[in-house]
Amino acid sequence: MVKAPLNSVNKMLMHEDFGRLLLRLTIGGLMMFHGLHKLFGGIDGIAGMLIEKGLPGFIAYGVLIGEVVCPILIILGILTRPSALVLAFTMAVAWLMVDVSATVELDKTGAWAIESVVYYFVGGIALAFLGAGRYSVVSADWR
Question: Coil, helix or strand for 43?
């Protein structure tokens, strides 16, 4: 009785390449807002955090690769897997830079304090495993 409707729904939604496109647009598009904010507003805050932790401030420019360049490549479906891994690495570094103790905290609305970092990290890892799919700018060899 339930099997036929479920099979119909499954058949209707069986579009993996469209799902990959939606994931690329979401992860890449939303991350790009963070990167553009740093691109136009400056990376001084990040450079300051790096210096505070004893690291050279110029490393902060790497955030522009992870939050601007890689999201653009992900959206377009160009070098998706390596770009997604760089994005995930950027989020791992962000987690370490902000405050690891926030891992066991909730924010004032009750959400996990590092929710957005985890969202982008897991999204990047998922894209690294899935690849760009058929709806991308370049051929399958470079996705």
Answer: coil
Q: How far apart are CA 91 and CA 119, in angstroms?
A: 9
Q: How far apart are the first and last CA of the chain?
A: 42
Q: What is the value of pTM for the model shown?
A: 0.89
- Which structure tokens are listed for 47? 């450079």
CB of 71 within 8 A of CB of 31?
Answer: yes
What is the C-alpha radius of gyration for the chain, rounded to an integer number of angstroms? 18
SS3 of 46-114: the string is HHHHHHHCCCCHHHHHHHHHHHHHHHHHHHHCCCHHHHHHHHHHHHHHHHHHHCHHHHHCECCCCCECC
> What number of residues does the chain have?
143
CB contact at 8 A, 132 and 143: yes
CB atoms closer than 10 angstroms to residue 21: 18
Q: Return the pLDDT at 2.
A: 87
Q: Give the Å distances, CA to CA, from 55 to 46, 88, 101, 131.
A: 11, 20, 20, 33
**pLDDT, mean over the chain:** 93
